[in-house]
């Protein structure tokens, strides 16, 4: 915390929203455990690399869902309150990390 | 399996090699659980996005470790046996996924 | 054109804004020509790959400058007019390409 | 130069190989000029961002072609001469830039 403008979203996430994101993260957690098993079983490296790429893609998808919600709630709210530029700078800074 | 040229590495991973990779994956698994908690606590989106980027970076690092081992053992072995090109094509194909 | 919601930015780019972006693109154009020369001179592959990565990084930087301007002008304007969500969806769709 | 193990490929690029890569780079150069024109004409930001993503993708493709050639010639040669690991480290280091 502290680094960014807020600690919580302007509109709290609904129970349903939380569940959807958490379920996707649980699937990703399972995929990470799956790779541990592959290493344990001494599976072929390219098979492992394909799985790692799949997890990265899944994480990026979750990230974009989070970013979309943020843009439609927090950024939109800030724009209407006249503080849009700061929140936009903050979001773009974070998106730069994603593009790496 | 099946998609690639082999099911296992040409040189089996040592117990120590396996442990190192698995430990890093366990840490990543913990990070994924950490994000679930952040969503549960309704934390600010940019904070969550930063964590997702961190996991992606950690996964890429593991991927490069796996790729390095693959190149130094399997690719090198295949080159010496005269089958290098096929294994190189296979590795580059997988690396393309990573560069996304 | 046609694919997106508009053909032009809501606030026209100033002469100065255009010049800055175009100058950066001209430098990138020069870097691309530089790689052609490196290939012509049969330079070592890793040297060429480093240059290609540098251009990709420079292009992403230009992209983020363009995205920032877009968010601060077009997206903000759309949010204030009540059409924010569509423009946000459009921008995130485009950012997904960048994250590849 | 200097940073890497060699200044030139172990097997010189043929005239035909050079031409193919250079032609693709010329197309990319043209695309970069195309974006300059789009900025000049004050085109809509998402249209510009799509073009930048296309150039990045095209550059990565060229990069993978260069990397493939490198792996099949220089890396393979080094492996056969017993110096594989160094050249593999060098290539992976460069590929890490690509994955950003």
From TrEMBL, chains A, B, C, D:
Q: Which Pfam families match?
A: Trns_repr_metal
Q: Which GO terms describe its molecular function?
A: DNA binding; metal ion binding
Q: Name one GO biological process term.
A: negative regulation of DNA-templated transcription
Q: Which PANTHER family match?
A: COPPER-SENSING TRANSCRIPTIONAL REPRESSOR RICR, TRANSCRIPTIONAL REPRESSOR FRMR-RELATED
Q: What is this protein called?
A: Transcriptional regulator
